[in-house]
Write a structure and sequence with these properties.
The chain is an all-alpha fold. Helix content is 77%, strand content 0%. About 3% of the residues have low confidence.
């Protein structure tokens, strides 16, 4: 039952065992991770183009993604609002980052680019599909699987060399509390959404375990449940990030835990500049610890829940 889990977790563990001290090598790994993500999302778009009745499938994808996003957001915001009152924390009043994005559009450029890559894959699949046929879609799936293994090795290496010691994670009480609250409320949302999405309970849990890490959740779920559900996971987690960009400036001074926590795994990277700019320097370690824990939890949880389908 767990053979698929072990096959995909193995490269993640192998990557985690590799210490990298050279800044140049770390920079190369970061660029390779980005390149691998773009490649897999492009191939996912090609696979989506191979679905029968594509228009109706996209309608179903959008409806399912909106449903999952709405339920997850409701559970997350309620839980994080409760946590904000249990663990009050006042964010700083002044910006602290020189190069933080000054507009939401600038901060969201990376997210928009990822959507464009998926759309580009769909267009390529539609253009080449009639001439190349089924071989194109089979090759896209196989190639995506091998790039996924490479990506997991690189992600494991990134986590090992992130500069976040275990002791620093465990002593940051608020960051740990935010991560646990976000994770539990997301899993409860996945259980609630599963019957509405015609999924098994464990598949609903897997869909909710991305915690905002849209590139990885789309890849892992698409590999096991097909490109349609991979697309649902992608847009569910991507929409979380887009809403976080809007939500953080509005609520971070009144409900700091909610503002930091809603971004999920992205609070240690993509949404961190916005948190820094509007929340101040005191929010940075909390956001990094919370995002790191959720990033660490997401891949094994997704793989574990998916392995229960066998």
């Amino acid at each position: 039952m767990f053979s698929g889990l072990l096959i995909v977790l193995l490269p993640l563990v192998l990557g985690y065992l590799v210490p990298v001290r050279s800044p140049q090598v770390q920079h190369t790994i970061n660029r390779a991770v980005s390149g691998s993500v773009y490649m897999i999302l492009l191939l996912m778009g090609v696979s989506l183009a191979g679905l029968e009745n594509l228009a109706s499938q996209f309608s179903r994808l959008g409806g399912n993604a909106l449903l999952l996003f709405s339920i997850t957001t409701l559970f997350n915001l309620a839980a994080l609002w409760w946590l904000s009152h249990r663990l009050p924390f006042k964010a700083g009043d002044s910006p602290v980052v020189k190069d933080a994005p000054t507009s939401k559009l600038a901060a969201m450029q990376g997210s928009i680019l990822l959507v464009a890559v998926v759309a580009g894959g769909v267009i390529i699949g539609l253009l080449l599909g009639p001439t190349v046929g089924e071989a194109l879609f089979n090759t896209a799936d196989l190639l995506a699987e091998w790039v996924l293994y490479l990506l997991l090795v690189l992600i494991g290496c990134q986590l090992r060399n992130s500069g976040m010691p275990l002791r620093q994670i465990l002593i940051n009480r608020m960051g740990l509390a935010i991560a646990v609250t976000l994770a539990i409320s997301s899993l409860l949302a996945g259980l609630a959404a599963a019957p509405l999405l015609s999924l098994r309970w464990n598949e609903g849990l897997a869909m909710a375990s991305g915690f905002g890490w849209y590139s990885l959740s789309a890849i892992l779920i698409g590999d096991q449940l097909g490109p349609l559900m991979g697309g649902v996971a992608f847009f569910n987690d991507l929409t979380r990030e887009l809403l976080a960009f809007i939500l953080i400036p509005l609520v971070i001074h009144r409900h700091t835990a909610l503002a930091i926590g809603y971004g999920g795994a992205t609070s240690m990277d993509f949404t961190l500049p916005v948190i820094q700019q509007h929340g101040g320097v005191a929010c940075v370690p909390i956001a990094v610890v919370s995002g790191f824990i959720l990033s660490l939890l997401s891949p094994p949880l997704i793989l574990f829940f998916l392995s229960l389908s066998v």
